[in-house]
Design brief:
Topoisomerase I, domain 2, 4-stranded parallel beta sheet, Rossmann fold, Topoisomerase I, domain 3, alpha+beta, 741 residues, 17 helices
């Protein structure tokens, strides 16, 4: 009997393991790399300028246990399949994993699947390939360019703006520029008054509203109340007749929208569900990796969610056709399948649009197995895909023109003649189609009930939301599907941008930073230049450009810009709205080398007043005098709230004492630190290192002094009324176990 082959299959995320394991069976041992396992060395550029920009990589310290485990398993395996995500980042991760395994290259192959279904996974396993080094080089080029921009510009900003927290990014800074320039337009906007006039008419006791559209066959421009009052008086004139002068009926076809790509999913989830970009991607990731749906076990419900391709596979198109004809009828499927292409898209693109993996798994049929958020997003994706494959809707539009002397008033009504793809949306989502108009015929006279003049003022352009910023970045060719969410998250966590009523507004820090970047690093901040760089990365992936030549063309002019900025850029203060309580001079927003913000007096060093701020840039509460005495000098102990928690400080000798409860667990990130319980500004308990701000390690759940056997991260308590479990604190690791008493 032949020896059974041992096959090791390595994915990025352990969440996929159960889903893939159910498909492939016990022959395959499935392990996870937990994302990237190697990176540039810290605190250095990480590539050799004198040697054609060759990159240097080292294992990420937190991943050493993972690397050892994968290497040991690889040596015992007959075959290794690398099944990281189907994009550039995934290709690079596969290459890095292959480099560290320490086995013969002939044993290692790359497989790729766009959805975690039996057919897709088995096909990938049966058709392994070599690692695509052009995609790897494109990813490494992007990594080098990002490192270069960040590591060269940031020190200049630290020096000139006296702020250790500042950083620049190739795409991040351009995204900030969009937001700041929009704010400038809003601030410079001068509203202009204008008026519109509606009239309430009636026939057969059925009222309907019309809008003034022409005066003497010209579009009306009503600029003030006096002009509006004159028109109102004319329309109310005694004896003026309102006659139906024209009825135009036109039938139009309404086409379904294309299936989702990353950016359109993020926008639709924002407008329909109110989800932020990061939240949408987090939920979609879970739907892609697999959800336990009862007796079927874990099932991957959607295709890969980072894509800019509208393509649909032949199998998916065929399944949609069968579903539509069986559930809605033959007339709801078009004569020819609907095909959607993005300008410049390669029809042979390996990627697909975001769609359900199994069209027969309707949202309602699996609702009981999904969380509320998963259900809502899955329904959005399922509806959009099925609708995209259906017949157009036929809409009858009727336009009514009502003449009253020199004035023409209009209204319109729409009626669905054939619902087509709208059939998927049970609520039709088209309330605007409804307009209750009486049975009008040309020549009919109707009665005037009331004339309604309305004053308006032109509005400034709106601030960007997360979704509209994604649209702007996409339309300019800046960034890629995998970068939208992290970039938008980063400019907020850095304090450059804040949310104001769900819109993105630049902070004073962000505005000042953007101004300096645009003035001194114009090329890096240029929209077209950034888009061209993205196009060059695509060219590298398609073997149309040489990676180190692309870097070389950027590097030397860029270094000249940095050197010029370093010598010509003046020192900049970021002034706040607050005056120093001691000397009256403006307070300046500063950031310590540990990343904590504070206000410092602009009169420094003559005045050394500082005011600590929390992570949102808000002032911390005033110290409270306690009954406790200092153990060192006997002075009064003050209760203070700092950016890193609550503590006691002696009024006299400044001796500090923590008020945070210790967990007894050593910090995994620094030497000598201990994890303590802390309370956020909103009163929520979290856990962090007592060496903050020198160490910024934090976690939401209470840790235990035990490491995860799979990835080496700390285990944490997840206790509910129904169960008491210990689970891994690494969000990419699915390890959990029952807690012992």
């Amino acid at each position: 009997m032949a020896k059974k082959e041992k096959i090791l299959l390595i994915v990025e995320s352990p969440a996929k393991s159960k889903t893939i394991g159910k498909i492939l069976g016990d022959t395959y041992q499935i392990e996870a790399s937990y994302g990237h396992i190697r990176d540039f060395p810290p605190k250095v550029l990480g590539f050799d300028v004198t040697n054609n920009f060759q990159p240097m990589f080292e294992v990420i310290p937190e991943k050493k246990a993972v690397v050892k485990k994968l290497s040991d398993l690889a040596k015992k395996s007959d075959k290794i399949l690398l099944a990281s995500d189907p994009d550039r980042e995934g290709e690079a991760i596969a290459w890095h994993v292959k480099q560290i395994l320490g086995v013969d290259d002939s044993k290692v192959s790359r497989i790729e699947f766009n959805e975690i279904t039996p057919k897709a996974v088995k096909y990938a396993v049966e058709n392994p390939r070599e690692i695509d080094m052009q995609r790897v080089k494109a990813q490494q080029t992007r990594q080098i360019l990002d490192r270069l921009v960040g590591y060269k510009i940031s020190p200049v900003l630290w020096n000139k703006m006296r702020n250790y927290h500042l950083s620049a990014g190739r795409v991040q800074s351009v995204a900030l520029r969009f937001i700041c320039e929009r704010e400038e337009l809003i601030n410079a906007f001068v509203p202009v008054e204008y008026w519109t006039i509606d009239a309430l008419l009636e026939k057969d006791n059925i009222p309907f509203t019309v809008e003034l559209s022409k005066i003497n066959n010209k579009k009306p421009e009503i600029n003030n109340k006096e002009e509006a009052d004159k028109i109102v008086a004319d329309l109310n004139a005694k004896g003026l007749k309102y006659l139906v002068s024209k009825i135009a009926v036109k039938e139009t076809q309404r086409k379904p929208s294309a299936p989702f790509i990353t950016s359109t999913l993020q926008r639709e989830a924002s407008s329909k569900l109110g989800y932020g970009v990061s939240k949408t991607m987090m939920i979609a990731q879970k739907l892609y990796e697999g959800v336990d749906i009862g007796s079927s076990g874990p099932v991957g419900l959607i295709t890969y969610m980072r894509t800019d391709s509208f393509r649909i596979s032949d199998d998916a198109q065929s399944a949609a056709k069968d579903f539509i004809e069986n559930n809605f009828g033959d007339k709801y499927y078009p004569d020819k399948p609907n095909i959607y292409f993005k300008k410049g898209q390669n029809v042979q693109d390996a990627h697909e649009a975001i769609r359900p993996s199994y069209v027969d798994k309707t949202p309602e049929s699996i609702k009981q197995y999904l969380t509320s958020e998963q259900y809502r997003l899955y329904k959005l994706i399922w509806n959009r895909f099925v609708a995209s494959q259906m017949e157009c809707a036929n809409i009858e539009n009727t336009r009514y023109e009502i003449s009253a002397g020199d004035y023409l008033l209009t209204t319109s009504a729409s009626k669905i003649k054939f619902d087509g793809f709208l059939k998927v949306y049970n609520d039709v989502e088209d309330e605007d189609l409804a307009n209750d108009i009486p049975d009008l015929k040309q020549g009919d006279e109707v009665n005037l009930k009331k004339v309604n003049p309305k004053q308006h003022f032109t509005q400034p352009p709106p601030r960007y939301t997360e979704a509209s910023l994604v649209k702007e970045l996409e339309e300019h060719g800046i960034g890629r599907p995998s970068t939208y969410a992290p970039i938008i998250s980063k400019i907020q966590t850095k304090g450059y941008v804040e949310k104001v009523e769900k819109a993105l507004a630049p902070t004073r820090l962000g505005t000042t930073l953007c101004k300096q970047l645009v003035e001194h690093f114009q090329k890096v901040m240029d929209y077209d230049f950034t888009a061209q760089m993205e196009a060059k990365l695509d060219d590298i992936a398609e073997d149309k450009a040489v990676w180190n030549e692309v870097i070389k063309d950027f590097y030397f002019p860029f270094i000249e810009i940095v050197n010029s900025a370093s010598s010509t850029m003046e020192k900049v203060n970021i002034e706040s709205d607050k005056l120093c309580p001691n000397c009256g001079k403006p307070m300046i927003i500063r950031t310590s080398r540990f990343g904590t913000q504070f206000l410092g007096c602009s009169g420094y060093p003559d005045c050394k007043t500082i005011i600590p701020l929390d992570k949102h840039g808000q002032e911390l509460p005033e110290p409270e005098i306690t009954e406790e005495k200092c153990e060192k000098c006997g002075g009064a102990m003050l209760k203070k709230v700092g950016p890193y928690g609550t503590y006691l400080e002696c009024e006299s000798c400044k001796t500090r004492k923590s008020m945070n409860k210790s967990t007894g667990v050593k910090c995994p990130k620094c030497d000598g630190g201990e994890i303590v319980a802390k309370k956020s500004k909103k009163g929520k308990i979290f856990y962090g290192c007592n060496n903050y701000p020198k160490c910024d390690f934090v976690m939401w759940y209470e840790p235990v002094d035990e490491k995860c056997p799979e990835c080496g991260s700390l285990l944490q308590k997840r206790f509910t009324k129904k169960s008491k479990k210990l689970e891994c604190s690494n969000k990419d690791c699915s390890f959990s176990k029952e807690a012992e008493e």
